[in-house]
Automatic annotation (TrEMBL):
InterPro entries: C1GALT1/C1GALT1_chp1, Fringe-like_glycosylTrfase. It comes from Aphanomyces euteiches. This is N-acetylgalactosaminide beta-1,3-galactosyltransferase. The lineage of its organism: Eukaryota, Sar, Stramenopiles, Oomycota, Saprolegniomycetes. Pfam families: Fringe (PF02434). Coiled coil: none annotated. Its main location: membrane.
Amino acid sequence: MPRVGYGLLLAACGAVRATRSKAEVCAEDYERSNRVLDLIHVSSDHPIDEPRILCFVNTISTNHATKARAIKDTWGQRCTRLVFLSNATDYDLDAVALDVTADHDHLWQKHKASMQYIWETYRHDFDWFYKADDDAYVIMENLRAFLRSPEIVMQQDIVPLQMGHRFRLTNETIHYYVGDKSLLKEYTNRWPNWWVFNSGGPGVVMNSLYMRLAVESFPKRTCLSDKYSVTLPDDASIAFCMAWNGVFPPNTRDLQGRERWHANHPHGVYYTNPANFPRDVWFNQYHRDIGGIQWKEDCCAPDSIAFHYISPEYMRHMERQLYFCRH
C-alpha cells in the first residue's frame, strides 16, 4: 500500500487556504500538542505495507460524518483495510451495521459482535487486527515497525497477543464490576487483586491466535454473560475473559518505560503531572504496579503508536504535524 500522496494528504488535513503559507499552517499549536508531537518519529522502515493490518473501528451513525470521516481521511488510509462497525450501514464509509443496541450498557455485546464479524469475514486475509474507538489516532508506520520487531515476530504464531496501553483495576472496582459473585470468587482465588487490561480508547492490536481464541471463548461462563456485564467496560471484559485462557496483556513500553500506546491526547499525557493528584485518583490507581505514569519528555516513546480522545479537528492537526509539516 503506497504512502498517501501529497495532494490527498492536503485534502485529508483540510485543504490549506491559498492565503496561508505552509509555515503559518505548521506553526499552529492545537491544544498545545506540538511539543509532544515533536518527540515522535514516524518510522520510514520498509516495507510500509507489511504486515497486513485490518483496522476495525466501533462507531455510531451520529459520528459517521465527523469522527469516522476524520479517521477515513487521515490515519485510516494507511491500514491495509479499514472497516467501521456501527448501528447503521454506510456504503461510502464502509460501515457495517451490527444487530446490537447502540448504548453504553451494551458495549460488551458490541465488542463481542464486532470481533465475531471481523473474524468470520476476514480471518484469512490479514496478519493483525487493530480495534479502535472513533476518537483514536494511530500512527500506522510505527505500529507496523513495532510488529516487525524480532520480539513480536517470534511470538506471533505461537502466543495469543493483544497489545495496547495497560490499566490495572483496583480491588474495589473488581468487586463492583463482576455481578456473578461465584465467578468473581473463582477469579480472585486465582488472581487476587490482579486484573490488568488494555484500554480500548487508543485501540489494541491482536494477532490471529488471539482473535480465534477470544471468539471461541465468548459463549463460556468465564466470558461474562450479558446478564452480568451491563456496567462492565468492554475492554476490561475481554481481559477478564482471556485470563481464564492464561492470556494477559504484555508490557508495551520501551526500555526507558515510556508508553507507546496512550490513553489520553498528546497535551494530556505531556502536561499531566501525576504527583499533583492524590494517589487514589483513578489514573494513578490504574497505573499502580505496572510502571506508573511518566510525563513531560518521559511521557512518550519516540515510536509512539496511538492516542485517545482525539477530536476530528485534533486528528487533522496531528496529520499535518506528523506528515505534511515534515516534508
